[in-house]
Each structure stands twice: as structure tokens, then as C-alpha cells.
Amino acid sequence: MKLAITILAMTLAVSSGLASKKPHARVTRERATKIVLEQLKDAVIEGSELEKEEGKLIWSFDLKVGGATKEVWVDAKTGKVIKIEEESPAKEGEERATDQAEKAALKKIAGDVVKSTVKTKNGKSICSVEIRTKSGETVEVDVDQETNTVVQVETEEQTEKK
């Protein structure tokens, strides 16, 4: 009987989304959009996405405001605007390249991106992506930004031995 109840509870958890691996936002895209437009009344939203940045689940908006490009982050749990930043075309390009490097790193090591840092190594632009795996281990994945290929994977344990 206890086994049947346990199986039923697990089935319900999985089917209701409680065991879902996808991040869950308490603030909807529609609510986050309203929040952004209340703060930046003349803004035209060019795009938005739910993503994890700096360890937080956020709604990230790309906007045009009076000819300038801005990025706005809204905390997906609280609805608080946590960042408004003007972006240059160069910064937008860097951000796209970092996003691509993070995707390549996550294909190699499953988990959540903690942070990404761009550095030059042997004359190449390398995006170092720190990932926290589901087991809690921290793994650093280096991705060549020109080719978007993983060039090195290093666990926390390997780093400590150096």
C-alpha cells in the first residue's frame, strides 16, 4: 500500500510539473512587459526571453528608446527591475557570442550557467563558462568564440589540484 501511494505521489509530481527541469517564473512575460513599459514609456520592445543570468532567473528585454538600444532585466520571481543598461552594437555582438558559447558549453555539460567570462588564451578569444551540475559540482567549460567549439573542460576538483 505504501509503495502504491509513493508511486502515485511521484506520478502526480511529474505530471503536475513539480519535478520539471525547466526554470519556473512567478512573473509572466506579460506582467514583466508591463513593468518595463511603465518604467520606459517610449520604449519599443524588440525581443524578450526568460533566461538565467548571474545565477538569477530573469526576463531579459531588448528595447529601442529614442534611437538607443537598451537591455532591461526583470527578476522573474519578484518583478523588480534589476538592470537597465544602454548597449552599443559591439556589446550586443559580444553578448550574442557569449550566449552561443554558453549553449555550446551546456551541450557538453548539463546544468545551470553560474557565470561566463571572456578571456584571451594563446591569442584566441575564449569564453569560460562556469556550470553547476545537478549533482552540485562546479565545472568550467572553455569555448573558442570564433569556432564555438569546446576546447577544455575542467572540474572543481581538477582546479584545486593545480
What would you say this structure looks like, in words?
It contains 4 helices and 8 strands; from the N terminus they run ααββββαββββα. By secondary structure, it is of the alpha+beta class. It has a 4-stranded antiparallel beta sheet. A 4-stranded antiparallel beta sheet has the order 5-6-7-8. A hairpin with a 2-residue loop joins strand 5 and strand 6. The protein is flat, with a radius of gyration of 19 Å.
Largest sheet: 4 strands, antiparallel
State the name of the first-level CATH class of the largest domain: Alpha Beta
Largest sheet, spatial ordering of strands: 1-2-3-4
Class from helix and strand fractions: alpha+beta
Q: Estimate what percentage of residues fall within beta strands.
A: 35-45%
Whole-Å distance between the termini? 53 Å
Which consecutive residue ranges, at least 5 long each, have pLDDT under 50?
A: 3-21
How many beta-strand elements?
8
Basic shape: flat
Radius of gyration: 19 Å
Structural domains: how many: 2
The CATH architecture classification of the largest domain is Roll
CATH topology of the largest domain: Nuclear Transport Factor 2, Chain: A
Helix-strand topology string: HHEEEEHEEEEH
By DSSP (H or I, 4+ residues per run), the number of helices equals 4
Round the mean pLDDT to the nearest integer and report it: 82
Helicity level: 25-40%
